[in-house]
Amino acid sequence: MTDWIEGFQASIDYIEQNLTKELDIGKIAKKAALSSFYYQRIFGAMCEMTVGEYIRERRMTLAAQELACSDCKVIDIALKYGYDSPDSFTKTFQRFHGITPAQAREKGAILRSLAPLHIKITLEGGTMLDYKIVEKAAFTVVGIKKSFNSETSYTEIPKFWDEWASDMKGLKGMFGVCSDMDGTNFDYWIADLYMPWEEYPEECSTYQIPGGLWALFKCVGPLPGSMQTVNTQIWSEWLPSLKEYELAGNYSLEFYLPPAKNPADTVSYIAIPLKKV
Asked: What is the pTM of this model?
């Protein structure tokens, strides 16, 4: 676990050392020896914010300190922290601090501050995850997909499910599939098992899930709460203690069983691809 924590902290340190430069999620994730896809999933679960939000709020914290303590022009500070125009800088600054950059220079101005993150894993009793390691052959899903940004996906993906539920589009909605993560954007599928002899709506396409090992986590209770709770435990508690396996692939699965009469008895699963160390 120590190596894992040190690697993740190294990624945070790298961000801090390069806040005035262009930051690439791939290079950040590499410091933690993770793919961009998994790094962002873990970061969000552990820190309760996205990588982009952390970078933006740290930059606004430092920019405010410079405004309050120096005579530098607003445009110069904006450029230093990656903003091409004073207008875009001012909008972001005002969303974070609640005041404009000019007001930040007034005596008694109240400014917000986000301190640098320091990763520390603590063990807490009473938390159990019901999971098993399984091996599955490759299979193909068919469904509708939509691209999402990692910073807004938690609010936008449920809307995608709501849109699907109002139309169904000839699908049962057995799976939710995250795929093709490129660092910031990814595809999310609402899908079923592909049956070549079946007819599907024109907007449907197929995606092949590679065969291999999977960690299969059981979620029991009303959705989406039960799945979100388990998802947070996977990325913030289970993964740091993983020893004999490591993450594989830039995809993950959600598997939905038919809803139970009593929502408290509803069962669903999260599947994470693994490979032996």
From this structure: 0.76
